[in-house]
Amino acid sequence: MKILCLESGGTKLVAALADLSGELLDRRIEMRSSGQTAEVTMHQLRRMGKDLSRDTTLAAVSQGFGGTVDRSLGSPTLCYHETGWDQVHAQSFLTDAFRVPVFIENDCNLAALAEYRFAVPKPADTLLYVTIGTGIGGGVVHRGKLVELGNLGEAEIGHIVVEPEGPECPCGNHGCLETLCSGPGLENLAHRIIGERTTARLIMSDFKAGDALADRVCSAAAGYMAQALAPAINLFSPDTLIFGGGVMNDNAEYLSKIRHETLPRVFPPFRTSCSERFFLSSLREDVVCQGAAIYALQRLGELDPH
Ligand SMILES: [Zn+2]
Fold first, then answer.
1. What's the CA-to-centroid distance between 55 and ligand 1, angstroms?
2. For the chain, which residues make up each domain, given as ranges?
3. Share of the chain above pLDDT 90, in %
4. Looking at residue 185, what is its pLDDT?
5. Residue 34 has what pLDDT?
6. How far is the CA of 177 from the centre of ligand 1 (A)?
7. 157 C-alpha to center of ligand 1: Å?
8. How many CA atoms lie within 13 Å of 201's alpha carbon, on the beta-carbon side?
């Protein structure tokens, strides 16, 4: 018996198989077309999943979704990168296709679950996971279980407003953290500070090489990150923070800047417990499918949260 893990994110679609211990065994990755609708994505995921699980008995299908999931329906409702999720009932679609239990959860939340499980050192109680890539998302895991506070999710750190007069966000607000510190956000910030168009990848490589202008951009971005992270720490009191996503890959220098900006703004009694526990993700591109496997196994009662 295997778990079929699916991921629909900003740029790629992934299908993977996991065994009942949660270990990922095999995977397929395809890029999604720009402008692709939800219906096309679900048909593509079904085809990828069918191909991968052709000779396999499945125990469940588990999907990580890059947007809002309505937990009472078990289905996605909104994605800022892709239209049509309000018209597709992904839960029924996958149940009809695979005839096994189907679990769908926000991709950052699943990533948080995977990071908690494989974190070294282990979080004492609570992990705050933050991913910085095409967008910025968060997830909270407490004693091995995903913290689920609302029917439509929680820990949307990317939509904390850090500059009220800042750029317009797809959510309708202005100056959300995501508009200034995601990959595209950093590019906007660099344009404002340096006066030139550049890429997030180049900003980070210049920053690591000691470039003064890139350092100014990263210092400003780390300041914005701190404005959102410190209140998040005050609210959730995590003992461990893990940072993933493309912007953070191999980026200990930027992590150090974020930590340095954040800690002085944290409620002092909470500062000591997390001050030495800001880490980079170790799971990288497998993190969502890995989390999807763990989530399904926990829901099936096959895996203890600890
Ligand atoms: Zn927003």
1. 43
2. 2-109+285-299, 120-281
3. 88
4. 97
5. 81
6. 7
7. 9
8. 1
Global pTM exceeds 0.85: yes
Q: Do the domains 120-281 and 2-109+285-299 match in fold? A: yes
The pLDDT value given to residue 33: 85
CATH code: domain 2-109+285-299 is 3.30.420.40
Q: From residue 118, how far is each of 123, 175, 247, 277, 287 by CA, in Å?
A: 10, 34, 21, 15, 10
- Residue 164 CA to ligand 1 centre (angstroms): 11
Cα–ligand 1 centroid distance for 138 (angstroms): 13
CATH number for the domain whose boundaries are 120-281: 3.30.420.40
Ligand 1 centroid, distance to 154 Cα (angstroms): 14
How many Å lie between the centroid of ligand 1 and the Cα of residue 46? 31
